[in-house]
Write a structure and sequence with these properties.
The complex is a heterodimer. By secondary structure, chain A is mainly β. Chain A has one domain. Chain A has one helix and eight strands; from the N terminus they run αββββββββ. Chain A starts with 13 loop residues before the first helix and ends with a strand. The relative contact order of chain A is 0.21. In chain B, strand 2, helix 2 and strand 3 form a beta-alpha-beta unit. In chain B, the strands form two sheets. Chain B has a nine-stranded mixed beta sheet with strand order 3-2-4-7-1-8-11-10-9, sandwiched between helices. A two-stranded antiparallel sheet of chain B has the order 5-6. Chain B has a single domain, classed as Peroxisomal Thiolase, Chain A, domain 1, CATH 3.40.47.10. Classes of the chains: A mainly beta, B alpha/beta. At the A-B interface, strand 4, strand 5 and strand 6 of A face helix 4, helix 5 and strand 5 of B. Strand 4 of chain A pairs antiparallel with strand 5 of chain B, so a sheet runs across the interface.
Chain lengths: 137, 382
């Protein structure tokens, strides 16, 4: 059984993937305009400042939109159906993830529901940030 | 620089067959379409001095056809690349960089002969921030905004399914369309769920085929055998490379920017459009286009489609070839949208409308990643 495709960090994303290994959702904020952003890059997409810093996001988010995928990607054969979602972090930025810890049915997944990060180790290099309903086990 | 009425499409053709062609490679489909378009324009490859294409390198296409180009454009931003190529060709012609531009598309989307591989390096952004979550092609990425539109505006499953139904009714009139059997909203909603809320009949086809265009200055347009199709307005834009970064899941910024550019250049109103081609990779794609291009207000596309206003007999004829949903969809479908606009403006379409003077061909690239818009006319203004 092939496993899910895993990323390989690049210089500007290394801190993100190091963070997930430690159980921290590390994203960036611009010191100049104050806005948080994702995906990782060494400049602010809002004002172009390179005076940016990493910080640990709260891991609290809301469910912005999603699909329930019935036709699994390679490596996901034993998981379908599964939820491919975009969540909005409390700090503002959005990211793609999977919603876990809940049966993947529309009635369980109203938009804007509160979700929180949970870290799932894949191998020694990569731990993925997944999200579950807030307060779920 | 305004490109309004500066250039015209004088050659337009598709490959002999669109559909399933396992005996032809992707670049072969470029070449077949190119020769057909050159014949349509009554010229030879030796008259061409500019090559623009997507999917393949313009270097490869020029070499394959034996063309010595003086202008190259390999803008490859997905299915709207060809709208953008027409815009760039018009600009290059106006600037005096070339005189006769050949724009080609060919894709073995279904048979995958002579195509590059899927998949990216593990270090690409998509590989880091999308693929680990099990995306499986466009049906799992392009579609994620749909629920947000439903949530914000009360758009219903039935309204989205109506897009596929209306489009199929046009395909019924087109002998070249792959899917021609009538369907109902119930049929669409009973078809297999691909990635909820998306059903099979709300997804485009996957086919093999190609198309090509010849663009020259408006001044020369009447020297060619076919009725010229003039470039009235053009636009292009882009937004994101990953769907999670789309600014507002209920509205395409790229569509809005591109559409505004085209209408401002064309100097016409929305109500002046007689015929429309909105790239339909999925049933929701033309809904987003209708709103972003300003034909209806934000969130109002659902009732518009449900009322069958885009179907035969409706007041807004849309995707009259049967669209990507029912006619053909090679992968970068935008070329076929332009081809149908040209056919309607020439009076050559399978489902020909009466009195078409203006047509808009609006394309999407990737998953709302990019956009290109053309407003075309057969009226020389004389």
């Amino acid at each position: 059984m092939p496993r899910r495709p895993l990323p390989e960090a690049t210089p500007e994303t290394k801190e993100f993937w190091e963070g997930t290994k430690r159980g921290e959702l590390r994203i960036q904020r611009c010191r100049s305009c104050g806005k948080a952003y994702f995906y990782p890059r060494p400049l602010c997409p809002h004002c172009s400042s390179t005076d940016v810093e990493w910080f640990t996001a709260s891991g609290k988010a809301t469910l912005y939109s999603y699909v329930i995928n019935q036709r699994p990607a390679r490596g996901f054969e034993d998981m379908a159906p599964y939820v491919i979602a975009v969540v909005q972090l409390e700090e503002g930025p959005r990211m793609m993830t999977n919603i876990v810890g809940v049966e993947p049915k529309p009635e369980n997944l109203p938009l804007d529901m509160a979700v929180e990060v949970t870290f799932e180790k894949q191998d020694d290099d990569i731990t993925l940030p997944l999200f579950k309903p807030a307060g779920a086990a | 620089m305004s490109l309004r009425m500066s250039a015209a499409i004088v050659g337009a053709a598709e490959t002999d067959v669109v559909g399933i062609q396992p005996d032809k490679s992707a670049i072969q489909l470029h070449a077949e379409a190119a020769l057909n378009a050159l014949a349509d324009a009554g010229i030879t490859k030796d008259d061409v001095d500019a090559v623009l294409c997507a999917g393949q390198s313009p270097v490869a296409v020029a070499e394959y056809l034996g063309i010595v180009p003086k202008y190259l454009d390999g803008t490859s931003v997905g299915g709207c690349s060809f709208m953008i190529h027409v815009r760039h060709a018009a600009a290059a012609i106006k600037a005096g960089l070339c005189t006769t531009a050949l724009i080609t598309h060919g894709e073995s989307g279904r048979s995958r002969v002579g195509m590059g591989g899927w998949g990216a390096s593990q270090q690409m952004l998509q590989a880091q921030f999308e693929e680990p979550y099990g995306v499986a092609g466009p049906p799992t990425r392009f579609t994620i905004p749909i629920l947000r539109h439903m949530h914000e505006y009360g758009t219903t499953h039935e309204q989205i399914a109506s897009v596929a139904v209306a489009t199929r009714r046009w395909a019924e009139k087109n002998p070249r369309a792959m899917m021609r059997d009538p369907i109902t909203v119930e049929d669409v909603l009973n078809s297999r769920v691909i990635a909820w809320p998306v059903h099979l009949l709300e997804c485009c086809l996957v086919t093999d085929g190609g198309g090509a265009l010849v663009v020259v200055s408006a001044e020369r347009a009447k020297d060619f055998p076919k009725k010229p199709v003039y470039v009235l307005g053009t636009g292009e834009s882009s937004e994101h490379s990953m769907i999670s970064q789309m600014h507002d899941f209920t509205e395409s910024r790229a569509f809005k920017v591109s559409g505004e550019l085209a209408f401002n250049e064309a100097k016409i109103e929305r109500k002046d459009i007689d015929h429309a081609m909105f790239y339909d990779a999925f049933a929701h794609t033309p809904m987003f286009a209708l709103e972003a291009l300003g034909f209806v207000g934000k969130g109002e596309s659902g009732p518009f489609f449900e009322a069958m206003r885009t179907a035969p007999g409706g007041d807004f004829p849309l995707n009259t070839n049967g669209g990507g949903l029912s006619y053909t969809h090679t992968g970068m479908y935008g070329m076929f949208a332009i081809q149908e606009s040209v056919r309607q403006l020439r009076g050559e379409a399978a489902a020909q409308l009466p009195d078409v003077r203006t047509s808009i061909a609006h394309g999407v690239g990737g998953m709302f990643n990019a956009a290109g818009t053309l407003i075309l006319t057969n009226d020389d203004g004389a």
